[in-house]
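Query protein
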Amino acid sequence: MARSRWREYWCDVVSEGVEIRLRRPGGFGQPRGYFVQCNQSECQYVEDNKPPCPLHIGMFSDEIRALEETRSQRVSGD
């Protein structure tokens, strides 16, 4: 997956603007799928897209759809 661009987002948990991007976990033994990464390493929810963290992969649904379409075209040889 090509590196996703950072985008601005107002986070109510830390009460400030943060930057977020779509990521895929890397490495063996990690869950497959997507993850929304935040640039706030001090936040206690930074590695966990679960409440009260407001981040979720639905925020990147268009990007995920485009990535999956590209992947399926590559596999089918179109």
Q: What stands out?
A: The chain is about 20% helix and 20% strand. Residues 45 and 53 are 6 Å apart (CA to CA). The mean pLDDT is 86.
